[in-house]
Amino acid sequence: MEDSSRIAGQRMRADARRNRGRILVAAREVFAEHGIDAPMAAVARRAGVGVATLYRRFPTRDALVRAAFAHQMQTCARALTEALADPDPWRGFQRLFETVCELQREERGFPAAFVAAFPDSTAGHAQARERTERDLTTLVRRAQAAGALRADFHPSDLIVALLSHCGLVTALPHDTAASRRLVAYLLQSFRAEAAHRPLPPPSALSLRDVPVAADGSQRPRSFRA
């Protein structure tokens, strides 16, 4: 009897793992096609599970979005840590920018999820956002101090550049060449030797200012002076 119960329990756990995996795959597909505001029921249908099963695994949309793109978010966090540790500040900056753009290109639902992770005002998420902004500012200042990054580059310019690339991959999801060319253009424009004439004043855009529209695109909420 005990063996039967143990086997039944193992099967239930295996079924639960399979259901979870199907839900996460379906979520990435649905979010890529319809944005992260797509109905949860659409994710459940794509995964072949009931809505109740979906909510049992992921009680909120936020929990589902974060789980669906957990690997990508971890990759971004690791890339930022590695960029800060790189003895060559420009190389660290360049690799971070290229990594995030590559993730935007490869996983169409990720750009919206990436930005959606930051306006959250709960304590843990707000702290993560503030830490990320501090680290990005540190990375920018180090690259400028090394004479590699143009002196008038502002940390908010990095967000503007990522949003620009996001717009391209959203409009042309299969045009890898266009994505890579834009990334190369942007990186060249960031270099100190490209600063032949001053830029207009920077935006006050921060991570908390970039909400996600219903179609999954990013639209700045405000540009505070």
Automatic annotation (TrEMBL):
UniProt-annotated stretches for the region Disordered: 201-225
Coiled-coil spans in chain: none
SUPFAM superfamilies: Homeodomain-like, Tetracyclin repressor-like, C-terminal domain
Domain HTH tetR-type: 17-76
InterPro entries: Homeodomain-like_sf, HTH-type_TetR-like_transc_reg, HTH_TetR, Tet_transcr_reg_TetR-rel_C_sf, TetR_SbtR-like_C
Annotation: DNA-binding region: 39-58
Pfam family, one: TetR_N
Keywords (A to Z) from UniProt: DNA-binding, Transcription, Transcription regulation
Name of the featured protein: TetR/AcrR family transcriptional regulator
